[in-house]
Write a structure and sequence with these properties.
This protein has helices at about 15-25, 40-45, 55-60, 75-90, 100-115, 165-195, 200-225, 225-245, 250-260, 280-290; strands at about 5-10, 30, 50, 65, 95, 120-125, 135-140, 155-160. The protein is an alpha/beta fold. Strand 5 (about 95), helix 5 and strand 6 form a beta-alpha-beta unit. An eight-stranded mixed sheet has the order 3-2-1-4-5-6-7-8, with helices on both faces. The protein contains ten helices and eight strands. The protein is about 50% helix and about 15% strand.
Amino acid sequence: MKIEKVGLMTPGDMGQAVAMRIKDKGFTVCTALNNRSERSRKLASEAGLTDVGSIARLVAECDLVLSVMNPGAAVDFAREAAAAIKAGGRKTLIVDCNAIAPPTVHEIAGLIESAGGRFLDGGIIGSPPRGTTKTNLYVSGPGASDLEALAGPQLNVRVVSERIADASAVKMCYSAINKGTQLLWLDVLIAAQRLGVDGLLEAQLRSSRSELVDFILGQFPSLTPKTYRWVPEMLELSKTLGAAGITPNVFRGAADICEFVAGTPLGKETPENRDKSRTGKDVVRLLAEARGRK
C-alpha cells in the first residue's frame, strides 16, 4: 500500500505526539477540527497539522486514518468514518489505535468493512513520543505490515499477526497490569491517608518495596488529568477480561476510582496546565481531602 497522506483523530496528548513523529517521516498529516475543543485546535496548530474540517473530508482525502482518542468515543467515530466511506466510495484504511476490548475491535471492524473500507487493529503502549521518549504501536490484521512505513526512531511499529484484535489484546493486558497497579496503589494510599496510618504504611513499604514506592508515586502527578478517559478504558478492560472468562469486576472498581479522581480539581486539569511541581504525595493528600465516594 502506498501511503502519502495520513489522517489522525484526534490531536490530543498522545495523538499530537504520534502525528509529529509521522510528520518527521515526511508524510502529510491531516485532522478534522469541526466541533473540536480549543485545546485540540491548539495542539493541532502546534504540531502543524492540516485541518480538513470534517471527518468525511478526512476519510476522502487520506490514504489511512488513525483513530487515537478517548476509547469511549471510538465506536461513534467508526460509525461516522464508515458512513463517509460508504458515501464517498474510497476504500480508506482505518486503524483503530484506542484502548478497547477485542469484542469492541470486532464491532468497529465490522462497521468499516461493511461500508467498503479496510480496517487494521492497533494498540499504543508507552508515553507520548516527545523528546527522547519512544512509543510502540502494535498492529494486527491482514496486511498490517503496511504500517511499518510510519515507523521511526521514536515510533516503533510492531506487527503482531494477521488476526484482527491481537494488537488490542496485547495493549489491554499490558494496560491491566500497568494502569491497574497504579490505580490500586492510589486507592489504598488514599485510604491509608484517611485512616491516619499513611506514615506507618509508607515506612513498612519502604522497608521492603522502596523502589516500587518511588516509581508509583512518580506516576501520580501525570495520572490525574488522564482519569476522565481512563474511565471508559477501565470498562473496556472489564469487557476484555470478561470475554476471556475472567471476572470483570476488578476493573469495574478501577473505573470507579478513575471516575472519582476525574471529578476532583486535579482531574479537571489537562496534561499541559497541571501543576508540574506537585508530587505524588501531594496528589494522595489532595485526593484524600476531596469529597466523594472515595
